[in-house]
Design brief:
This protein is mainly alpha-helical. It is 74% helix and 0% strand. The protein is flat and about 70 Å long.
């Protein structure tokens, strides 16, 4: 049976809880007694076209330097000269043919590398035996730059398409494996216990728990893989190639055509920015449920 003292104690506790909640909403107070405004510690709202601001400044510096003669055209051609070379290459059909060849090599190598890297990461992430057999060789490959393997790959595959695609595949596998494997091992063990309690099959466990949980890591690895794909492509296309953007750049170097070299580099830059932008767009759409600092 409650007494008057108990009722008073209950009312006092409720008033105390209400005062704490009000203080939390208002935030810390100044000496004057007025509530202090909450300070935002995040990066703030996104700047429209913020990612394009840096490249635009570089292009502006290039234009100004070329217009006032501060940049020697023998070292770096003027932007309008590069635009003329770009139009000339398109009119001749050289740029389209070389672009198609490079894009095919990149897509084939990237696709194969993604599949292999993801499969290896899943096997190593779900099996201790798989990890013992796979993780060590992948870490060894990680320590060896892919471009350092080109002489060996030439001995194995020659100088044809097999060597070029294999180089891209080896470059793509490592970031996909590393980030996907790390994401797999970072999945909360409570989800695994819940799946065991629900008696989920191995297949359902992989497709409903493992792969969704590893998706953020896979997409991060994909961004690195896309970048390394284009970097590897630039190098392998300058080794005894007869077509591709890298071949076009190397041929222009032999003839001292700086404007053609810049056209090829500009195409590589656009390909890298567009592909990275597509991956980031996919990441925002697929992982829209996450609340992160970037949001």
């Amino acid at each position: 049976m409650s007494t008057t003292w108990d009722l008073d104690q209950g009312k006092s506790a409720r008033r105390h809880r209400h005062s704490i909640a009000a203080f939390a909403e208002a935030g810390p107070t100044r000496a004057s007694g007025r509530p202090r405004l909450r300070r935002r510690l995040g990066p703030g709202p996104a700047i429209p076209f913020g990612l394009q601001l840096g490249p635009a400044i570089l292009v502006l510096v290039w234009v100004i330097g070329s217009a006032f003669g501060w940049i020697d055209p023998r070292i770096l051609s003027a932007p309008w000269t590069v635009i003329e070379a770009f139009a000339r290459l398109i009119e001749q059909g050289r740029l389209q043919d070389n672009f198609a060849t490079s894009a095919t090599r990149a897509l084939v190598g990237l696709s194969i590398g993604l599949v292999i890297g993801t499969i290896l990461a899943v096997i190593a992430g779900l099996s201790r035996i798989g990890e013992a057999l796979i993780d060590g060789p992948v870490q060894i490959k990680r320590a060896i730059p892919t471009l350092a393997l080109i002489p060996l790959l030439i001995l194995w595959f020659g100088i044809g398409e097999g060597m070029k695609v294999t180089t891209i595949v080896l470059a793509v596998i490592v970031p996909v494996y590393i980030h996907t494997h790390n994401a797999l091992r970072s999945i909360d063990s409570r989800y695994v216990e819940l799946a065991e309690t629900l008696r989920m099959s191995r297949k359902d466990f992989i497709f409903e728990v493992i792969l969704p949980g590893a998706l953020p890591g896979f997409l991060l690895g994909l961004r690195f893989a896309v970048t390394l794909c284009w970097v590897s492509l630039v190098v392998v296309e300058q080794i005894n190639a007869t077509s591709g953007l890298g071949y076009m750049i190397d041929l222009a170097r032999n003839y001292g055509q700086t404007d053609v070299i810049l056209v090829g580099l500009a195409v590589y830059v656009l390909l890298g920015l567009v592909s990275d932008g597509l991956v980031r767009l996919l990441e925002r759409r697929v992982l829209s449920w996450r609340r992160t600092l970037a949001n």
